[in-house]
């Protein structure tokens, strides 16, 4: 669970999971100070870090000589009825083409990718 609370300057928001903490903010053109991650940055980060970790875990479990993984996620909200997560996975290491393809396929197994692929609903606990 993530808990967040208002902070200063205006719109800056402190958030924590009880072990780690960070700040989110909005951009200056929207009244923020740009002093933290934008909320959409955090969505992109959730998917990017999960893809990265999933590839590393798969490589470790299958003794694949992976050196590094570079992932990039960009949220495309330009379509009114659809949000598209565009991502890339760069695999670095002395790998065969088969190993490289297995690792790229393994990225899709990350839990955030699976979660975001499902139908989403929202429930306001204050309205019960």
The CATH architecture name of the largest domain reads 2-Layer Sandwich
| Helix coverage percent | 25-40%
The residue-averaged pLDDT reads: 96
Find the CATH superfamily of the largest domain: K homology (KH) domain
Radius of gyration: 18 Å
Compute the number of helices: 3
**How many domains, as an integer?**
2
Reading side by side through the largest sheet, how are the strands ordered? 1-2-3
H/E element string? EEEHEEHH
- Measured distance between first and last alpha carbons: 19 Å
According to CATH, what is the topology of the largest domain?
A: GMP Synthetase, Chain A, domain 3
Based on helices, strands and strand pairing, what is the structural class?
alpha+beta
Strand residue content: 25-35%
Q: Let me know the number of strands.
A: 5
Shape, per Cα inertia axes: elongated
Reading off the top of the CATH hierarchy, the class of the largest domain is best stated as Alpha Beta
Folded structure, characterized:
With 128 residues, this protein is an alpha+beta fold. It folds into two domains: 1-37; 39-117, GMP Synthetase, Chain A, domain 3, CATH 3.30.300.20. 32% of the residues lie in helices and 27% in strands. The protein contains three helices and five strands, in the order βββαββαα. It has helices at 39-61, 97-107, 111-117, and strands spanning 3-6, 13-16, 21-24, 68-79, 82-92. It has a three-stranded antiparallel β-sheet, with no helix packed on it. The protein has a two-stranded antiparallel ribbon with strand order 4-5. A hairpin with a 2-residue loop joins strand 4 and strand 5 (82-92). Helix 1 (39-61) crosses helix 2 (97-107). It is elongated, with a radius of gyration of 18 Å.
